[in-house]
Amino acid sequence: MEKVEGESTFRTSSSSIVSSNEDLMMNVLSWLPVKVLSRFRCVCEQWNMLISNPYFVSTHQGRAIQNPNSTKLLCELKLEGLIRICSIEEKEKRKVTHDLIRPNYPERILQEHCYAHMVGRPCNGLICLEGSHFALVCNPATRNTVVIPIGKEKHEYYLEGLGFCSSSNEFKLVRLYRRSESYRCELFTVGQKGVHPLQPSRSWRHVGDFHYKICYPSFRIMCHVNGRVHWIVEPLSDSSSEYILYLDLELEEFKVVSCPKHWLEEARDENVDLIELGGELGVVFFNWVAWDIWVLKDYTNSIWSKEYHINENIPGYPLFNLRVIGIRRGQLLLIINDAVLCYYDPRNNSLEVIIQGCPDSYSWHVTTYIENLVMPL
C-alpha cells in the first residue's frame, strides 16, 4: 500500500490533541461500549483515572440509555453461578453474540462452592444475587461485586431486588418478610455517596409494614420504575380486588394505585405481570383473546392508557404462554413458550425471531438491562 504523504504526522498530531485535551478525550471515550473501555483502562494511568471518574461514569451511562445497542439480555444459567449476556446488533440482519460471565465472588464464597441466583430485575445496570447465606450486588458488565450481609434469620423472608433513588444517587436493596398478618419491609442502602445517614452501620433498616397479600406467580417479581418499586397485591380481607402497591424509595413510604378499570376477572392472578417500558410502569395481562399492555400515566389519579394489543393469532406461534421483557425502538421483546425470543412489531402484528430454542441448559430467567460502568459500593 502506498503511504500517503503526511498521514503519519497527521495521525500523531490528532492523537496528541486528543490525549492533551481531557474534555475531548472524555467525549470520545464516553460513546464506547463497556468491554472496550475495560481494555482501555489498561492503556495508561491517565485513561484509567478518567474512565473511573464518577462524572465520566455518569456521562457514559446517559449515552448508553440513548443507544439501543447498549441494551443487553441477561440469561441466568443454572450451572456454577454463570450469567449469559446476549448482545443484539442493529443491522439489516440481526447478529446475536453471547458472553458468559461469572461475578467476582469473594474468595471465601468460592471456597464453599456456594453460587447465587439472580433476584428481581436489573436496576440501572446492577443486579442482585442471592446465595444460601449471603447476597451480592453486581455489575455484570464489569463483574465488580459487593457482598451484602443477610443479617439475622427471619421466618419467610423474600429478597426482592434492587431499586434506585436518583435524588440521593443510592441503590436500595429491598426485602420483605411475613409478620403475623402483614408484611414488613426492610431496606439496605448501597450508596454511591456513602453510608445512609439513618444507617451508620450499613445494616438493614425497617421502613414500614403493609396489610396486603402479594400475588406470587412463579414469574412475577418486584418491578422498579423511576425510584418506585411495585407489586401486584390484594387485600387480606377481600381477594376480589387487586391493586398496585408501590414503595417510594426517596420518601420511603407505601402507596396504592388502582388497577386499570378494564381489568377482566379472567385476567387476574397468573395471567398478569408488571413491566418497565420506556421509563413507565406497564401491566401486562391475557384476556384469553389477546395480550393487553396498559401503562400508568398518573399515579395520583390512577390513570392508565392501553398502549399495546397483541393479537393471539400471529401465524406460527400461539401466544398462550408469553412474557414481555422489554422494549427497543418501538418493538416489544417477547419470550414465547419459554423457548423463542423475538421482537414484536405492533404496527403490523408481526414477529421477528431472534433466538429459537434454549442454547445450553440455562433457565429462561431472561431480562433486559443497559450496560454501564456503575460501581456497586
From TrEMBL:
Please indicate which superkingdom the organism of origin belongs to.
Eukaryota
Output the Pfam families linked to this UniProt entry: F-box, FBA_3
Q: Where is the F-box domain?
A: 22-56
Q: Which InterPro entries match?
A: F-box-assoc_dom_typ3 (IPR013187), F-box-assoc_interact_dom (IPR017451), F-box-like_dom_sf (IPR036047), F-box_dom (IPR001810)
Gene3D superfamilies, A to Z: 1.20.1280.50
- All residue ranges annotated as the F-box associated beta-propeller type domain in the record: 101-361
Quote the protein name from its UniProt record: F-box protein
